[in-house]
Design brief:
Layout lengths: L6 E6 L2 H9 L8 E4 L6 E4 L1 H5 L8 H10 L3 E4 L2 H18 L3 E5 L2 E5 L7 H20 L3 E6 L2 H13 L4 E3 L3 H8 L12 H8 L6 H6 L2 H19 L16 E12 L2 H21 L2 E12 L10 E12 L2 H15 L6 E9 L2 E2 L15 H16 L40
Helix pairs in contact: 4-5, 11-12
């Protein structure tokens, strides 16, 4: 091998659709799309749906009849299922490779530097067996790209998705040169359309052009980030593996409403629900928040309706992850920005200046962090883990929650709800 480094990118194929197909084999071979919140836009497509010319992010209502005429199936997002299936894929990877960096819900980088003694053929065999193992243990098909850097492994993964075996390498110099000469500049990780226009104006059309460009020119156009991408394309690792994610500094919990919200009482329920969800996430990640914000907006896609949006933030006396405290401040914020006479589409809570639960600065008048409230939160979290999210919640979150987003086409949450487990009947 030409480099001491060896990185693999494992990317789940059409991940949301693949998760649905694991539990519903009738979806195999059919056009399938998964929709965003409130069944608004198309956020995932099966290969068969892509072949119909359905673009990513397109409004569902524009393509609904085309999909129906083609016998396609549309499903609401089932994030609880997708998250659980993602963790199952991660478990296979962590058991197979010493160092794994989780990049997104369906992508992971693997450090295969310790496997380079296997040679190119050995690495390809390892990747093939790992892909088969993931498919056998989780049912999720993947593509695996192997190269000397992260950027090159991304390129290799594009090649893998089009190959029969689903695994590709860009370790061989001749193969790497040929592939980079056929990759459009906008298809390189970290380069968007705006940057693509600027690079093309300087004759940089392909990944190979970027790799061979003068460093001063790339730095002028893209800064140091572009220089790192250029060197990564040359096979020099500039983006190290991150075994643990950097400390989280902020968090947002929000959802669009399933139907317009017009009253402060409904808005208080919704903002309390988002605050409680955010607090649960903080506790799960062993964090506390020092700043809370709330925001609200009308539907900008209905320009004929009166439009309004606003937000406000407050500093909390002491960093906290208590649902009770965050709900109280969230409702206070919402009261200050809510205006009568509007049909609201969305609200949410933002938490900022996050810190570890082990490093909280108290003031002289603050009660102890380890208050009875901590025990209550722990009991609530335990019950919700055991019996399902939302089993125990605060009354201020509402009972009926008519404002909740639509998910009329959602499949069962097969792996995380007892009452939605897959039932198999034998005749």
């Amino acid at each position: 091998m030409s480099s001491a480094h060896c990185i693999a990118l494992v990317d789940c194929n059409s991940f949301y659709v693949s998760c649905e197909r694991v539990f519903n084999p009738n979806l195999e071979g059919k056009p399938v799309v998964v929709l965003s919140n409130n069944d608004g836009c198309i956020v995932a497509r099966s290969p068969e749906a892509k072949a119909l010319g359905i673009p990513m992010g397109a409004p569902y209502h524009r393509y609904k009849h085309q999909l129906q005429n083609a016998g396609a199936i549309a499903l609401s997002s089932n994030y609880e299922l997708y998250g659980d299936m993602s963790h199952r894929v991660y478990d296979v990877l962590f058991a197979s490779v010493p160092e794994v960096e989780i990049y997104s819900i369906d992508e992971c980088f693997l450090d295969l530097t310790g496997f380079t003694h296997l040679g190119t053929e050995g690495l390809m065999e390892f990747g093939t067996k790992l892909r088969e193992k993931i498919l056998r243990w989780t049912g999720i098909p993947t593509g695996i790209g192997i190269a000397s850097t992260k950027v090159l492994s991304k390129v290799a993964n594009r090649v893998a998705k089009k190959s029969v075996i689903g695994v590709a390498e860009l370790i061989t110099d001749e193969l790497r040169d040929r592939v980079l000469s056929n990759i459009e500049i906008e298809d390189i990780w970290g380069i968007n359309k705006r940057l693509g226009v600027r690079l093309r104006s300087h004759g940089i059309i392909t990944a190979a052009n970027l790799r061979d460009a003068p460093e001063a020119l790339i730095k002028q156009i893209m800064g140091i980030v572009g220089v790192r991408i250029m060197y990564e394309l040359r096979g020099l690792s500039c983006l190290p593996m991150e075994a643990s994610a950097p400390p989280q500094k902020n968090m947002i919990c929000s959802r669009s409403f399933g139907q317009p919200v017009t009253t402060l009482a409904q808005m208080h329920e919704a903002i309390a629900h988002h605050a409680a969800r955010a607090a649960a996430k903080l506790r799960h990640r062993k964090l506390r928040a020092s700043v809370l914000g709330a925001f609200v907006t009308t539907n900008r896609f209905k320009p004929n309706d009166p439009q309004y949006s606003n937000s406000v933030t407050v500093s909390l006396p002491t960093a906290t992850n208590s649902s009770q405290v965050l709900i109280r401040y969230a409702k206070f914020c919402m009261t200050s920005i809510f205006r009568e006479g509007f049909s609201y589409k969305k609200c949410g809570v933002s938490l900022n200046d996050l810190s570890s639960v082990d490093a909280v600065q108290l003031d002289l008048l603050s009660p102890s962090v380890n208050s009875p409230d901590e025990k209550l939160m722990a009991i609530i979290d335990s019950l919700n883990r055991r019996y399902g999210s939302g089993t125990v919640r605060f009354a201020s979150e509402g009972i009926r929650q008519d404002w909740k987003m639509r998910s009329d086409l959602r499949s069962p949450r097969y792996t995380s709800r007892w009452d939605e487990l897959l039932v198999v009947r034998a005749n």
